[in-house]
């Protein structure tokens, strides 16, 4: 199964758990999701949970690029001790692009990643980064990446937002179904 097909299948699971990982609304968010870079017409983006075919953050021309390797967290689920990878955050005139690439995940496992407001050493990234602190816990006010690892345990995803996330500090990954089991964090 391709990563794109896996991603689409994983969106249903991701939506079901969003309220447990920072999304407090019981609204059916699947009707608002978009797999691309967002709908800029009409004053803003629709919910963007990632697009595996988008330009990766490290390839965005003219961007201020931040990158770091993921470090394992003590809250990780059993069986994730081999998880490793890299996160990139690009701030550019069009907003923010975030990409993650990981290995050592559960084959065909479903995962979520969120941009966080604190560095990894502080409360494993703390709360999710929000463009408007009093705003929604869903994209586009937050940056979320929903993805499914392939059969070898490799995961890759890119998410875009039309605002610059200057104050973002880290990217945290967890299994989609176990939001308290943060696997890894990368400082940005």
Automatic annotation (TrEMBL):
Coiled coil: none annotated. One of its GO terms (molecular function) is metal ion binding. It comes from Saccharopolyspora aridisoli. The lineage of its organism: Bacteria, Bacillati, Actinomycetota, Actinomycetes, Pseudonocardiales. The keyword Coiled coil does not apply. InterPro entries: SOD-like_Cu/Zn_dom_sf. GO terms for biological process: superoxide metabolic process. Residues 25-55 are annotated as: Disordered. Keywords: Signal. Belongs to the Cu-Zn superoxide dismutase family. Residues 35-45 have a biased composition (Gly residues). Residues 1-20 form the signal peptide. This is Superoxide dismutase family protein. It comes from the Bacteria.
């Amino acid at each position: 199964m391709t990563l794109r097909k896996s991603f689409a299948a994983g969106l249903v699971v991701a939506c079901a758990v969003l309220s447990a990982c920072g999304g407090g609304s019981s609204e059916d968010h699947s009707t608002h999701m978009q797999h691309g870079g967002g709908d800029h017409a009409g004053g803003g983006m629709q919910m963007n949970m990632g697009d595996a075919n988008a330009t990766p953050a490290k390839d965005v021309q003219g961007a201020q690029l931040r990158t770091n390797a993921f470090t394992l967290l003590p809250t990780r689920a059993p069986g994730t001790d081999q998880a490793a990878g890299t996160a990139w955050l690009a701030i550019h005139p069009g907003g923010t692009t975030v990409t993650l690439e990981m290995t050592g995940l559960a084959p065909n496992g479903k995962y979520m990643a969120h941009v966080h407001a604190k560095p990894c050493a502080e409360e494993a990234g703390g709360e999710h980064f929000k463009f408007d602190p009093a705003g929604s816990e869903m994209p586009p006010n937050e940056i979320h990446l929903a993805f499914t690892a392939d059969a070898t345990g490799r995961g890759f995803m890119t998410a875009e937002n039309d605002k610059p996330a200057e104050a973002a500090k880290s990217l945290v990954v967890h299994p989609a179904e176990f939001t308290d089991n943060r696997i890894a964090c990368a400082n940005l």
